[in-house]
Amino acid sequence: MTVQTPGSMNFAKLRQGMKAKITAITNTTDTIRRIQEMGLTVGTTFRVVKVAPFGDPVEIDVRGYRLCLRRTETEGIEVEPLGL
């Protein structure tokens, strides 16, 4: 069971143009560990650049570079939307 903090949502619900901050990472798979090594850690802010037509993959701008992620890779990442 995942407990969301007030104002947080799952990464998969983000839409193109939204900015967000990572508030929690509840999954500890190898994929999540790899994503953390690329700079997506708690407290990191990023912007959603593009979302593919069927919602997968998602391109984000984080720490000065672009990163494409599949929805399955972001399971367990909770974010706080910061607006457009």
Question: What features would you describe in this structure?
Answer:
By secondary structure, this protein is mainly β. 10% of the residues lie in helices and 39% in strands. The protein has a 6-stranded antiparallel beta sheet with strand order 1-6-2-3-4-5, with no helix packed on it. Strand 3 and strand 4 form a beta hairpin. The protein is globular. 15% of the residues are buried. The mean pLDDT is 86.
Keywords, please?
84 residues; mainly beta
A few lines on this structure:
The protein is 10% helix and 39% strand. The protein is mostly beta strands and 84 residues long.
Strand line-up across the major sheet:
1-6-2-3-4-5
Uncertain stretches of 5 or more adjacent residues: none
In terms of structural class, how would the helical and strand content be classed?
A: mainly beta
Strand content: 35-45%
Oligomer: single chain
Overall, the morphology is globular
The biggest beta sheet is recorded as: 6 strands, antiparallel
| N- to C-terminal distance | 30 Å
Radius of gyration, taken over Cα atoms and rounded to an integer in Å: 12 Å
Helical fraction equals under 10%
Order of helices and strands: EEHEEEE
Question: Secondary structure elements and their pairing?
Answer:
Layout: E1 9-10, E2 19-25, H1 30-37, E3 45-51, E4 58-62, E5 65-69, E6 77-83
Antiparallel strand pairs: 1-6, 2-3, 2-6, 3-4, 4-5
